[in-house]
Amino acid sequence: MSQPSPKPQQIPVVVLAGFLGSGKTTLLNHLLHRSGGSRIGALVNDFGSVEIDAMAVAGALGDSTVSLGNGCLCCAVDASELDQYLERLAEPSLGIDVIVIEASGLAEPQELVRMLLASEHPGVVYGGLVEVVDAVEFDDTRARHPEIDRHLALADLVVVNKLDRAADGERVLGLVRSLVDRAAVVPATYGRIDPEFLFDCRPSEERIGQLSFDDLHEDDDLHEDDPRAAAPHADAAHGLAPHQHRADDHAGHLHAAYDSLSFVSREPLDPRRLMTFLDSRPEGLYRIKGYIDFGPYDVRNRYAVHAVGRFLRFYPEPWPGGGERLTQLVLIGSGIDAPALGKELEACRSEAPHADEHGMWGVLRYVRDPEEDAADPARTSPATA
Description:
This protein is an alpha/beta fold. It contains twelve helices and 14 strands. It has helices at 24-33, 52-58, 82-89, 109-117, 138-144, 148-154, 169-179, 213-216, 271-279, 338-346, 361-364, 370-375; strands at 11-17, 40-44, 65-67, 73-76, 98-102, 124-134, 157-161, 184-187, 238-245, 258-265, 285-292, 301-308, 311-318, 327-333. The protein has an eight-stranded mixed sheet with strand order 3-4-2-5-1-6-7-8, sandwiched between helices. The chain is globular.
């Protein structure tokens, strides 16, 4: 008897915010060009702000919706129409892997996040709030818009842009880090951050016969230092593979430094120990993804985990038939201590043959039913522990 198919993975929706001139559109254009094969659905306030020359190569349809050769869609959007556009972009036939909402320069990011968490569409999930700041104008921006401190405290990832033009970039970086609440802070020039921070740079299936932005820029920066080239081969019984990707890996290429850790275990993890680890995850740890084996606590299911910033969610799904039962996790952040995190994960292993009847309670708090989410949006709020 075949195993039932797991539910389709929800599409992460990333909110890209920042005041006018910070470099949001430049960063979005960078992501569109460096999608690594993934299809990006983009909701932007100003259609004209997206790179028209690149779009003209791939072709456009309509005057408010643009369909690109690599599957990207850009729509002029009002926040009140968010669900309508999410419905459109989450249509399975489009094959969208990630949705990026570029907020207007004067938007209130907290409201966008609130609306996203309250979305009634079961095919999407919160993918994090990214705040872009202009390193050159940061002091003046704070003077004109003191609310930026509150925005930074809400962010999951902060991109400090235009560092090449800032006379005191290190001071600005330090000041921004003092204003965030455990968010990852990454430096950038021309909005160039590695897309792996925000989404998996892998197509959901092989796509034949389509011209992508990657094809048009095959000699440019991310093709050489694509994180996939350095991805660990997890074939050991218990594996830890920390990796560091640095801005100076390739001369002339300005990418934000990030660190990643891959963890593999044949032994199940103890749910209580894992929740202690997740509740105390350190500053700079932006994403956690993968699958967890809780052993006797749920012998039928593995648990897909999706964490971004303080947001956490688990998805139980039947184990695939015939394969080895492993815990496989990838952690991505900036300035994280990968070896120390690896040791903490190792300490979550358990050889207990029997389950404690209350052991899964902490995990189940973050298992969401889409119908319950729609009925009670407050239940989907990011974890604050």
